[in-house]
Design goal:
Largest sheet: 4 strands, mixed
Number of strands: 10
Strand content: 15-25%
Mean pLDDT: 78
Order of helices and strands: EEEHHHHHEEHEEEHHEE
Shape: flat
Number of helices: 8
Low-confidence stretches: 1-16, 21-63
Length: about 240
């Protein structure tokens, strides 16, 4: 058993899967079956993750949406126009797409996705997209380059979708390669590894490498920080 901060898991075999049930945050990696598929169970309650920024800083720095209020546990308080009654939506393709838009356009999303000017200015191009819905099983796609680990991006999206759409039992991507931050480029004739491609966005100021060296998880802080004047890019 491998426990990981924020219940994010690294996948090494085929088709990773987030499955939800009501319990504390844990992860389990099962031995591969005869079909060489690995299923990772994410057992979670719907308590929102804690933001690395303080609520007073985060909510004043940028205009908050329901994702921000959920992540800061502000729903049904005087600080939020939303309530927990507003949180739950039907399990439909349109609502999944709307929730992903909320996630990407949130304060947190403005540090993660390349649709925003500041992340784009340092080479972040990543996006997350809806692919398909079959019953309670949802497939998403990760495209482009992220500063964060790709498993972190999927994990954040999966937790939010499950909070808003409790009927969803499985949130996954089509292939394990979508969650790999590095990819071996293979010679098609010899089968040898020519080189390893780094699928991450540039470590533009060295902070990601520094935090990793210090034994910290860079995703806990992210590529940017907040000040009283708003979102800033560390030099």
């Amino acid at each position: 058993m491998k426990s990981i901060s924020l219940a994010f898991v690294a996948f090494t075999l085929a088709k990773p899967t987030y499955s939800f049930s009501s319990s504390s945050l844990t992860t389990r990696r099962h031995a591969p079956s005869s079909s060489s598929q690995t299923q990772v169970l994410l057992s979670t309650d719907t308590s929102p993750p804690q933001s690395s920024s303080s609520s007073s800083t985060s909510t004043t720095a940028l205009k908050a949406n329901i994702y921000d209020d959920w992540s800061l546990d502000l729903l049904s308080t005087s600080q939020s126009p939303y309530t927990y009654d507003d949180l739950i939506v039907p399990c439909e393709e349109e609502t999944i797409e709307e929730c992903l838009e909320e996630f990407m356009d949130s304060d947190y999303g403005k540090t993660m996705f390349g649709r925003h000017d500041v992340p784009a200015s340092v080479g972040i191009t990543g996006s997350i997209e809806f692919v398909s819905l079959e019953g309670p099983e949802c497939v998403l796609a990760l495209t482009g380059k992220f500063w964060h680990k790709r498993e972190t991006v999927l994990g954040k999206a999966a937790m939010y979708l499950n909070a808003r759409i409790p009927e969803l039992t499985t949130i996954t991507v089509s292939t394990a390669e979508e969650l790999q931050d590095f990819e071996d480029v293979i010679d098609e004739f010899t089968g040898e590894v020519l080189y390893t491609e780094d699928k991450r966005s540039p470590d533009f100021n060295g902070d990601r490498e520094t935090m990793t060296y210090q034994g910290l998880n860079p995703d806990d802080r992210g590529p940017f920080v907040f000040s009283s004047s708003g979102l800033i890019r560390p030099a």
